[in-house]
Amino acid sequence: MATYTVNTAKHAVLSSNVVDEITLNNPCSFLIVSNRTTSGQPIFFTFGDPTKGVTAPTVGGDDCYVCLIGMTITIPGDGTSPLVKLISSGAQAYSVMVV
Predict the structure, then answer these.
(1) 12 forms bridges with which residues in the sheet?
(2) Residues of the chain above pLDDT 70, percent
């Protein structure tokens, strides 16, 4: 598992079937997750307030958001600094940002 702490954005590549955890220190009005690749596999993710616990995602799992190839998802935030957990069955390039 790769663990990162950043202020507003993280850009990285997932290892196949390994969860990345990104703690974003800035409050979140919107969470933006991008699967920056043009081929490969979808990225599954969960997010939330790290003080309340965030369930780890699974590939194709229930209660996970999915970001398809080349897709960007924008989700309204709740003003907290989120913890985002991502996984894919392929080595996918991603970006996670708060605004």
Answers:
(1) 94
(2) 100
